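Lecture 7 notes: from sequence to structure.

We start with a single chain of 88 residues. Read the sequence below before looking at the structure.
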Amino acid sequence: MHGVYCSATFFAPWDQTVEPYIRIATGDYEDEKKEFGRDNALSGYLGSLAHEVVHYQQWIKDNIVHDRGVAAKASNIVKRYSYTVDHP
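Now the structure, written as tokens:
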């Protein structure tokens, strides 16, 4: 939106009757899989998704999106998920 490269975005409309959305960039998956392996490549996407889900939760709760504490909460989501599967 602002011309900055990113791996994921969350669109949080001003009006909560408008549907929000999350976008995850996956175009470099094959390169990342070759360099880091399948599980690590997929884990990166899961981390990006979890980060944006935290922003979605903020938006639902307060209609305010900020970065304070987001990385820790996203990491916790991915960690809890990792306990439920053998591979991402």
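The radius of gyration is 14 Å. Keep this in mind for problem set 3.
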